[in-house]
Design brief:
Blueprint lengths: L1 H13 L10 H9 L3 E3 L7 E5 L6 E2 L9 E2 L2 E2 L2 E2 L7 E3 L2 E3 L8 E4 L2 E4 L5
Antiparallel strand pairs: 1-2, 2-8, 3-7, 4-7, 5-6, 9-10
């Protein structure tokens, strides 16, 4: 019985899905040329994130930023004001928005999908 358990456990471990995909050397090189770094901007696939030039600029919509318009936070919690303003993010990614990002669109809170 113990042998069956151990064998089952070994089979389970060997069937573990690959969650992180590698990026090509060219992708990494192109990212670095933009001043970016490969990082976790989504669930499973590493992406490129590079600095924005308008970080901290007051915004009311993501279209006003190189990255996205992020709402103010206090101790890591979103604190949204009545005037619907935020600040432009300090990072831009391959995707319009990072996975599961809370952002400001037309002066209102919005959230990007949580998927890859």
């Amino acid at each position: 019985m113990k042998a069956v358990f151990v064998l089952s456990l070994l089979l389970l471990v060997s069937c573990k899905p690959q969650l992180v995909h590698e990026r090509s050397a060219q992708y990494v090189k192109d990212c670095e040329l933009k001043g970016g770094k490969i990082g976790s901007y989504s669930f499973f696939v590493p992406g490129c994130g590079w600095p924005t030039k308008d970080a901290g600029k007051v915004c009311t919509d993501t279209k006003q930023c190189e990255g996205y318009c992020k709402p103010p936070t206090k101790d890591g919690v979103v604190v949204f004001s009545e005037n619907g303003t935020g600040s432009c993010s300090d990072i831009q990614t391959d995707d319009e928005l990072p996975n599961c990002a809370v952002y400001i669109k037309d002066g209102k809170l919005a959230a990007s999908p949580c998927s890859d």
